[in-house]
Design a protein that fits this description.
Layout (H helix, E strand, L loop, with lengths): L2 H54 L4 H35 L4
Helix pairs in contact: 1-2
Length: about 100
């Protein structure tokens, strides 16, 4: 008779753990999607601005100076985005139970 409440408690604990793991996975997917969409928006905006500068300066020194400032910063932002998205992809795999 005492076995029924223990089984119910175990089932409840299992459901709560599953819901928590599902919330963690959802949060990491949301973060990765947010980071990548922000990065792609930044790249798109930067290329549009670079095209405007190139047209306005007729591909002169101002264009190359602007590109030398803009492109390394985009590479840095892209690299940091890649590292963080890769890191968020590793975290849920580490928290899953072994099969």
């Amino acid at each position: 008779m005492n076995e029924q409440p223990a089984q119910a408690t175990n089932a409840e604990i299992l459901i709560i753990e599953h819901n928590n793991m599902q919330a963690v996975r959802s949060a990491t997917v949301f973060e990765a999607n947010g980071r990548t969409s922000l990065f792609l928006g930044t790249v798109s905006s930067s290329l549009i601005v670079l095209a405007f500068i190139g047209e306005a300066s007729e591909m002169g020194n101002a264009f190359f100076l602007f590109a030398l400032i803009l492109l390394p910063s985009l590479i840095f932002i892209g690299w940091m985005t890649f590292l963080r998205v890769d890191q968020t992809g590793i975290v849920p795999r580490c928290s899953e139970p072994a099969r």
